[in-house]
Amino acid sequence: MGVVTSISTLLLSFLGAGGATTERLLVLGLGLIILLLLARNKAFNRILNPVIERMLTRYTALDLRDYVSLLHLKEDYRIAEIDIRKHNWLANQTIKDLNLTDEGVLVLGVKRAGEVYIGVPPTDLRLRPRDLLVLYGRKKRLKELAKRGSGNKEAHHKAIDENKIDVAGQRAQMERMNAQEKVEN
Prior knowledge:
By secondary structure, the chain is α+β, with helices and mostly antiparallel strands. Helix content is 55%, strand content 12%.
């Protein structure tokens, strides 16, 4: 909402200052195009990002991290929220009962309706009907979990089996990398 207000104020002050409106709109449009081109320019961003990071570090207490890269969110992994109201089969169960880690899904937190966020919730936390569950895992698994209905133990067991295959594949890949590293050394 602040952006809309800023843009409208800029437009009104720019156009209301008198003079030729067409010329002013042309200058404004050209300025916007230049800003868009600079924002999409990788070389400009490589220069600007460190400057912004230094300024934020110096003048704010913000913790600067590239969470997209850290959590591999550009790849197959995602963070998702599941509204317990819409997926009532999750309500009144503990996190331990759900056994999501065996499916390759981590519970990052629970947002209680009208209450605080519970980060890294204990396994004995019982989910309530108005909670919001924050999860991390593979995109496909999170979508399936969001569509899953109550009493669907078959889907749960299938997800566990698929995760075991994924983990085995990752271990095999790590072993190949370690063997290749030994050969190179």
